[in-house]
TrEMBL record:
Residues 8-158 form the N-acetyltransferase domain. The keyword Manganese does not apply. Transmembrane segments: none annotated. It comes from Sorangium atrum. Its EC number is 2.3.1.-. One of its GO terms (molecular function) is acyltransferase activity. Coiled coil: none annotated. Pfam families: Acetyltransf_9. This is GNAT family N-acetyltransferase. The keyword Acyltransferase applies.
């Protein structure tokens, strides 16, 4: 008689007892084993914002066979900040794949994220998998391209352009937070403390400015085939373009490409005044995906931003309520002449004006696309004044997350 497989025991990993096993399953699943194992030990799992309490692992007997990792950070939605669980290193040991073990592992993490105070969760995943856990497309990946010959000839040369270590220093953290303020989808740094995630080993970082301790801006670049790829940039737009132009000329590269540059950034606005190309790649499932973890908590964190949007609109004098519902939760906003608050108890029983339906409510909160298009594509049902309120409260935000902060 064949031996019966022991039941899967799912829990959060212990920081010391399980660290080696977590690193081992991640290293065996992703990338080059030796180098990724070293990265996990040095900065990706250990010494990072990996959340041991919110992550999940599954054991068959004494063997760790599944892992669902959570990296906790603050994400901007306009001027609001929400707690976000970034999902990474999702792995099942090769011998145990196809048995539904991850379907029994992931729910533990989702429950733990809610208990730990997370509002939303973001991941960058494979096709046709994560939708079963309530994740929906978050945003399209974007790229900008501009030829070196199309940069303005009158750009002043950058003052003190110099190469710096490719690492998240305090000075670069300050620059990132300053120039990304109000840009939806971006992370409030620090995230990773010792290295940049999602980038190749051959990245270069450059900064400029007279004060070596307080640079005026910086760029992170990689030399590609016939182009210089800019993975992130801060500083005045013309100074950024001047620095990148100088680097292109040094490396004899005729074109610039910007990956994950936020559409609403000052630099993107400057590119829209030049001869440039903007591309977006949509994915039905996979790539950037989002899930609501705590709907009332997320709306409460967003309340000041929602109030500012309402007060600046033609509905500034509106009084009433709007209910939003996901498959798991319902939350109601009380709207009172430019003020917004999340209400509970009898007041939250369900307003006449409501947005109800599936998981696409997460796309609405994030401003993934034009709001009424989000509702239509996600089969969200609008009642009462919802069709008037939704475009005001949840406008398109063109969210992006820089490669350095991905998990």
């Amino acid at each position: 008689m064949p031996l019966k497989t022991p039941p899967l025991a799912v829990r959060s990993p212990a920081p010391f007892a399980d660290a080696a096993a977590v690193i081992e399953i991640a290293a065996r699943t992703f990338g080059n084993y030796a180098s990724f194992r070293a990265d996990c030990a040095a900065w990706y799992v250990n010494h990072s914002h990996y959340d041991w309490d919110a992550s999940a692992v599954g054991f068959l007997g004494d063997a760790l066979v599944t892992h669902w990792g959570v990296w906790g950070y603050r994400m901007r939605i306009g001027r609001a900040e929400v707690r976000c669980g970034g999902i990474g290193a999702v792995a099942t040991e090769a011998a145990h794949r196809g048995k539904g073990l991850m379907a029994r592992t992931a729910p533990h993490s989702l429950e733990r994220m809610r208990a730990c105070g997370y509002h939303l969760s973001i991941l960058f995943g494979i096709d046709d998998f994560y939708h079963r856990f309530g994740y929906v497309p978050a945003w399209p990946e974007s790229r900008w391209r501009v030829k070196l010959a199309d940069l303005p000839a009158t750009l002043p040369p950058p003052r003190g352009l110099r190469r710096i270590p490719a690492a998240p220093t305090q000075a670069l953290v300050r620059l990132h937070n300053r120039w990304n303020a109000g840009l939806t989808g971006t992370a409030v740094r620090p995230t990773f403390l010792r290295s940049w995630s999602g980038m190749r080993k051959d990245v270069e970082a450059w900064c400029w400015g007279a004060d070596r301790e307080r640079p005026e801006g910086h760029v992170v670049v990689q030399a590609g085939r016939n182009r210089l790829v800019c993975a992130e940039a801060t500083g005045a737009p013309d100074a950024v373009l001047s620095a990148l132009g100088a680097l292109c000329r040094r490396k004899a590269l005729p074109e610039l490409r910007f990956d994950t540059l936020p559409y609403r950034s000052a630099l993107a606005a400057r590119l829209r005044t030049l001869n440039s190309r903007y591309e977006q790649r949509y994915a039905e499932s996979g790539a950037a995906m989002v899930r609501v973890v705590d709907l009332p908590g997320c709306l409460a964190a967003m309340a000041p931003e929602l109030a500012a949007r309402l007060a600046a609109s033609e509905l500034a004098g509106y009084r009433g309520a709007l209910t939003l519902a996901s498959p798991e939760e319902t939350a109601t906003l009380r709207l009172d002449r430019g003020r917004v608050e999340v209400v509970h108890g009898r007041s939250a029983a369900g307003a006449r004006s409501a947005v109800r339906g599936g998981w696409a409510v997460a796309r609405l909160l994030l401003g993934s696309d034009a709001p009424l298009e989000v509702c239509d594509a996600g089969k969200l049902r609008l009642t009462g004044d919802a069709a008037r309120l939704v475009p005001v409260l949840f406008p398109a935000q063109h969210p992006q997350l820089t490669l350095a902060d991905r998990f």
